[in-house]
Structures are given as C-alpha cells and as structure tokens.
Amino acid sequence: MDILHAVLFAILQGATELFPVSSLGHAVIVPKLLHWHIDQASDSFLPFLVMLHLGTAIGMLVYFWADWLAMLQGVIGRGYAAQVNVQRGLVVRLIIATLPAVVIGAIVKKPVAHLFASPLAACLFLIANGGLLWLGERLRAKSSGFGAKSSTTLSYTDAFVIGLFQCLAFLPGISRSGAAIVGGLRRGVAHEPAAKFTFLMGTPVILAASVAEIPKLLHQHEIHALFGTSVIGAVVAGIVAWLSTAFLMRYFRDHDSWALLPFAWYCAIGGALGFVAIIIGL
Predict the structure, then answer these.
(1) Kindly report the CA angle at 127 between 124 and 128, in degrees rounded to 5?
(2) How many structural domains does the chain have?
(3) Which domain holds residue 44?
C-alpha cells in the first residue's frame, strides 16, 4: 500500500467511524469502486487497520478528555458527593450499553464474517442503514418530555436499549453511531446528547479492541514493513476523527428536528448507486 492510499483510507476511516454512514461499509465499497488493489483480508492489512482504529479512538478520547477526566475523578471519589454520584452513574450506564455488543458480538461474529468480504452485501446494508436513519427520525419519541434526557440522566434501561441498537452494526453497511443514535431517539433523547453518549460508548471499545491486537502484531513481519505507513495513517485518522466529532456535535445541536435525514438519503442513494456500479462492472 502506498502513502496516498494509506492517507485516503485513513480519512475514510476517521470520518465514517463517527458519521452515521458505516465505516465498515465504506471500507468495503469504496476501494472496490475506485479499483484500489488492496486485499483487506491479508495479514499485511491487519496492522494498518488496527493502527487506524487506534488513531480514531485517540482522536475521540482527546475531544472528550474533560468528560473522561470527570468520570475518572468520579470513580476514584474526587469532588463533591453529588458530582461523584453523577459521574459514577454515567460510567455504569456506559458499561451497561456496552454489554450487548460484547455478548451478541461473540455469538454472531463468525456467522456474519463472510459478509464483510462482499461489496454487494455492504451496498444493500448501506441502503438498509439509510432506511434505519429515516425511520428513526420519523418515529422518534414525540412525548412532551422529548429531549430532556442527557448522557448523565439516562435510565439504565435507556442505556441498554441504545446498546442493543448498536449491535445492528455487526452487519457491514449498518452504522454503529447511526444505530445507537436512533436507539437514543427512540428513548426520548435529543440528537446531541444521544450522539455524545454514542461517542463516549464507542471510544473505549475501539481503543480496547485496537490495543488488544497490538501484542499479536508485534511478532508479525508485516507490522515492521508497514510501520511508517501505519503511523501516518493513525495520525491522519485521529485528526479526522477529532474534526468529525467537533463538527457532528455542533451539527446535531443545531439541527435537532431533522439531523439524520441527509445521512439517510446519502446512504440510500450511495448504496443503490454502488450496487449498480458493481453489478455493471464500473
């Protein structure tokens, strides 16, 4: 893989991991459409992909550093009692929201693995992702108290439901962030706090998954051969992830009544065009 492809792939990863458009779906579809000769199933690609996810997680961690610091202080009992309880409650909610992905992921990982090698399947699921975002926007909770909940006032049931929605992303083309935000909307959470909870929930998962792979990769020849390229990719992915998070938090705050609809149309149209282009061999 040359530097140009590495940088482009890093930009793709850093942006689509946060935007509700599916990073996995784009990682399968875009190289196929642009005729990048990259074997994503090869041993040489895994170290690069791990570094991209590590860079993305660090970018998200840096953006929300104040929130993570507050949670850490709450866990160790520093600060006023009320604030400590609030932060500890947020940590518990994040753990509860993560549990469904851990359990369901262990069950479905092998059965759906073959789908990740299929650009056509990714296109179809990307269309489905568009439908999910559209339905989530149209069918969100309409109660008088809609939007009153924040990441620290979610009930444990709310957190669990959001975590269940997140599991839809085990299908390539379904966005993790998009599905989780839709889950938040269904529980009466506005776009901005739903996105914040989603990003906080995803950061340790992505970071832990990346770090867990590093010891295995240190003994592989491929990581040494692609080390420089991987580091550049990680830095680019981290910067793009930080910028994407900053943009999306403001975007969701300013467009709460229809925020997911542009992404829904993008996924539906992009998935359909990608499917046709692959079928006719463009």
Answers:
(1) 90
(2) 1
(3) 3-280
